[in-house]
Design a protein that fits this description.
Blueprint lengths: L1 E2 L4 H6 L6 H10 L3 H4 L8 E2 L7 E2 L2 E2 L4 H12 L8 E4 L1 H8 L7 H6 L8 E4 L7 H6 L1 H20 L2
Parallel strand pairs: 1-2, 5-6
Antiparallel strand pairs: 3-4
Length: 157
């Protein structure tokens, strides 16, 4: 899973996705905390490794030098990647490149074009409640398929 950067609470706790966003993300995936935090099961790779600070409308973007310096090295150690979840616009920009659509909504709506190996997702932050209400197809269509893909990836041998 490639996410954004830790928020302030997560930065202070040192535990990825240890906040309301993580609770929602685990719900989306159909996972409890145990498999989610099992490094033999799931790799949690942020676009930025530290809290980037606060801007006018929320957290600042992840610092690009983290990805440039560390992603290649980290990802080369993953023995078997069965599914990649791209959480948020920064992960999608970095890993979909020109394949992504003009907006995050369009990219996530086109999830079938990236499946079965990749799923672009919006950030699960409570700040995105309005987005989720405006896009009921996400919960109705994408989430059941996502849960099925996650379960399949975790049971493959």
């Amino acid at each position: 899973m490639i996410g954004q950067a830790p928020g302030k609470k997560v930065h202070l706790s040192g535990i990825p996705w240890d906040d309301a966003s993580g609770d929602r993300l685990r719900e989306w995936l159909g996972l409890s905390r145990e498999p989610f935090y099992d490094s033999a099961v799931l790799a949690l790779v942020p676009m930025g490794f530290c809290y980037p600070g606060t801007g006018k409308s929320g957290d600042l973007p992840p610092r690009t030098e983290c990805r440039e310096q560390w992603h290649g090295k980290l990802l080369s150690h993953l023995a078997e990647v069965r599914l990649t979840l791209l959480v948020g616009q920064y992960a999608q920009a970095a890993y979909l490149g020109e394949q992504r659509r003009a907006t995050l909504t369009e990219t996530v709506r086109a999830w079938r074009d990236y499946a079965p190996g990749r799923f672009p997702l919006p950030h699960p932050s409570p700040r995105n409640n309005i987005w989720l209400k405006k896009n009921p197809w996400f919960s109705e269509d994408l989430l059941p398929e996502l849960r099925q893909a996650v379960a399949a990836a975790l049971t493959q041998s």
